[in-house]
Structure formats: structure tokens, C-alpha cells
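ok so for the tutorial part 2 we go from a plain amino acid sequence to predicted C-alpha cells. step 1 is just haveing the sequence, like this:
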Amino acid sequence: MLKPVCNSKAIAMAFIAVALLAGLASQREVYAATETTLSATQAPFALEGWQKEFDDICSRTQDAMTFSIEELTALVQRCDALPPQMEKLDDTRKKVYKGRLRMCRGLYAYVLDSKKNEKK
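step 2 — the prediction. this is what the C-alpha cells look like for a chain of 120 residues:
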């Protein structure tokens, strides 16, 4: 009979990943609800280049554990490059998107650190 393995580090990583994904999922629901209310003059603004980059970066969080160290490093760098492009947003949108980006970056950085520590 197999013994259950209780690895506190693995449990903590799983808990953080679930919490971050739950937060991102709730933010996507809010975004989806507000996106349908955009007026014709606001719609092009929502599809700017930073938005596509943001969507691409944050859409990969559920696969974070499968990425290599190089891929995670690139994602963290992409996260770091995005905030200056968000400065022109109104205060509410800037706060929401920067918060979501911070969560995505935090997850990638955590997994990256974890994988680097495993290699040692």
C-alpha cells in the first residue's frame, strides 16, 4: 500500500496557484461584463497592443508549472515591460490591469524561483 506524501512546499505551491487562478478567473468575469458595455468610441481603445500582450501573458497562468526556466524568465520580463504602456489608461482601468498583471507576474516568479531551487 502506498503512503500519502505530504510535502508542505508542494501543498503551498498548489494553494498559491489555486488562489491566483481563482482571482484571475473572477477578474475575467468582471472584464467580460464590462467589455460588453463599451461604447463604439471605447472599443478600439480596448484592443490596443498592450491589451493583446496582457491577454497573452495572463492567459498562460494555468500552465505555469509546465514552462521551462527560460520560458518563465521571458514571461516575467514581458510582465515587467508592460506597465509603462498602461500609464495612459484612466485610473480605474490602470489599477485593475496593473493588479492583474502583478498577480500573473507573481505566479510566474514564484514558479521560476521554485524551479531554480529544485535544480540546486
